[in-house]
Every structure is written in C-alpha cells, then in structure tokens.
Amino acid sequence: MRHGDKINNLGRKKAHREALMGNLASQLITYKRIVTTLAKAKALRTFIEPLITKTKKSASKEQIMHNHRIVFSYLQDKSAVKELFTNIAPKVAGRPGGYTRIIKLGIRLGDNAERAMIELVDFNEIYGKGKGEAAAPAKKTRRSGGAKKKSATAEAPAAEAPAATSEESTASE
C-alpha cells in the first residue's frame, strides 16, 4: 500500500532524484524555460518554488548569506544561484507564489512520453507584456464601504461628462 506517499520518485533512487532536480532547476534558472517530460516538470515545480521564495525573504546580511548557502546546497551551481538572487528575485518580489508555468506539448515520438515546457512566469515576453518590473504587493483592507466610495466617485465624473457633451452639442447648433 502507498498510503500518504505523495512524492513522485520518477523511477530513481533518492540521490539520483536529487541530482536530477538540481540539474533541471539550474537549467531552468539559466535559460528561463526548458522542455522535459510532464512528470519531471511537475516534480520540478515543487522543488524550485520554495527555492525562489527563499530569495525573497532577505532581512539582514546574515539572513541573505544563509539563504544563499541553503539554495546552493540544493542547486550545486554558483552561476545559477547568482542568477537566481540577482536577476530573478527582483522580478518575483511582488508575486505571492506561482513562479512557474507548465505548458503541455504533446507526446514524444520515441517512447510516447508526454512532454511539457516549464518556464518562469515573469520572464515570458508573450504573456507578460508590461510586467518587466516588480509590482508592489496588493494591500488587504477590511474597511466596509470602500467599494461604495469608489463607485460613487466613478459615477460622479461620468454624470458630468454627458452634461458637457450636451452643452457642446447645443453650442455647435
């Protein structure tokens, strides 16, 4: 029975699986998108998203170095860690999670495996037009009537605009 066994072993032992995930994560960080099998892409998503979150949680200098060392212990690639902390972290600073996107590509001819492309969301030029810089996190408020006030102020200028056009139409006659 496999009750509570949620990890996808990908047909590998633990050391081989960790090496595979580290290599795939390094390549994803370097190239911003990679094509692999669907099972590996789903496993990679659960591996890399906590690492990207660690790049955002940096309060003091000691904490920054500690997070660098933790991420390096998973990736074992200095250039990927540097890329992650210098280029990727500022872009995902305003995003509360969901840093990757998986797109299914169909089957592979040789062995009928389902292929998928996994990419970093903020680095896609097609879907992310106008989102080059990190946005400020959304403010959560519990005020009552906030939406009513916004709708009342939105209606007031809208009500004035038709009046101005009707005055212009009478002036042009």
Number of helices: 5
Q: Report how far the terminal alpha carbons are from each other.
A: 85 Å
- Shape assignment: globular
Main sheet: strand order: 1-3-2
- Class from secondary-structure proportions: mainly alpha
- Assigned CATH class of the largest domain: Alpha Beta
The main sheet comes to: 3 strands, antiparallel
**How many E-type strands?**
3
Oligomer: single chain
Describe the 3D structure.
The structure is a single chain. The protein contains 5 helices and 3 strands. With 173 residues, the protein is mainly α. It folds into 2 domains: 14-123, 50s Ribosomal Protein L17, Chain: A, CATH 3.90.1030; 141-173. The chain has a 3-stranded antiparallel sheet. The longest helix has 27 residues, at 146-172. The protein starts with 13 loop residues before the first helix and ends with a helix.
